[in-house]
Design goal:
The chain has a single domain, classed as P-loop containing nucleotide triphosphate hydrolases (Rossmann fold). Helix 1 runs parallel beside helix 2. The chain is globular and about 45 Å long. By secondary structure, it is of the alpha/beta class. The relative contact order is 0.18. The protein is 41% helix and 18% strand. The longest helix is centred in the last third of the chain and has 19 residues. The protein has a 7-stranded parallel β-sheet with strand order 3-2-4-1-5-6-7, sandwiched between helices.
Length: 213
């Protein structure tokens, strides 16, 4: 089973939105996807409880607590991790995950926090040995702004690839409130979001995104 973890030590950067969006996109692709919520706030499990049975299924993982064990029928496990992930808990996630996504917001506070976290991440054994492959996502961006240009330059300073950027769109907020993602919305409403997810999904599908086993 492939495990993909969405990680950032700072809260509020969109981990749950990206985890749920990725889960839905992979489910639409035909994967049997399980979604594990490691965050004490349980917003991902709350989202999953709202999801319609008419949409591609996403399997819950121990929604009542306990160790995260995906159902046997799942081929992909996506982990929504909590803010402040560090030490042995971070190490455990990295040893489990083949692929790690790190969303970063275009703000000075978020970029400073990401700088510390990404430098630390780059030194950890699973990442050094490429057992876990890291991809960066510029999240909630507004192109043609100064802070967007600063974020682009900031992310390009790291050896981790920038696999995509997602616009600052209310589609994500409104969809999340209904147990949906932009993948579930009609094209007239979300075509631009679909286009932004294409390079991310292409990277996820590629061998480049998977750690050495």
């Amino acid at each position: 089973m492939r495990t993909i973890a969405v990680i950032n030590a700072k809260g509020g950067c969109g981990k749950s939105t990206i985890a749920t969006s990725l889960a839905a996109a992979m489910a639409w692709d035909g994967h049997s996807v399980a979604l594990g919520d490691m965050d004490p706030q349980q917003s991902t499990n709350d989202w999953l409880a709202l999801r319609s049975e008419d949409l591609p299924a996403i399997l819950p993982v121990n929604s009542k607590g306990g160790p995260l064990r995906a159902p046997a029928e799942a081929d992909t496990l996506i982990l929504d991790t909590p803010a402040g992930l560090h030490g042995s808990e971070l190490g455990h996630v990295l040893r489990r995950a083949e692929t790690v996504l790190v969303p970063v917001l275009p703000s000075p506070v978020d970029m400073r926090a990401a700088w510390r976290f990404l430098n630390h991440l780059a030194e950890l054994k699973p990442v050094v040995k490429r057992e876990a492959v890291v991809g960066l996502i510029a999240n909630r961006v507004r192109p043609h702004t100064i802070i967007y240009r600063e974020l682009t330059g900031f992310l390009n300073d790291f050896r981790f690839p920038v696999i995509g950027q997602l616009r600052d769109s209310m589609n994500y907020v409104r969809a999340f409130e209904r147990g949906l993602t932009v993948s579930d919305l009609p094209p007239y409403q979300a075509w631009q979001d679909w286009e932004e997810w294409e390079p991310i999904m292409a990277w996820i599908r590629s061998r480049r995104s998977r750690g050495k086993t």
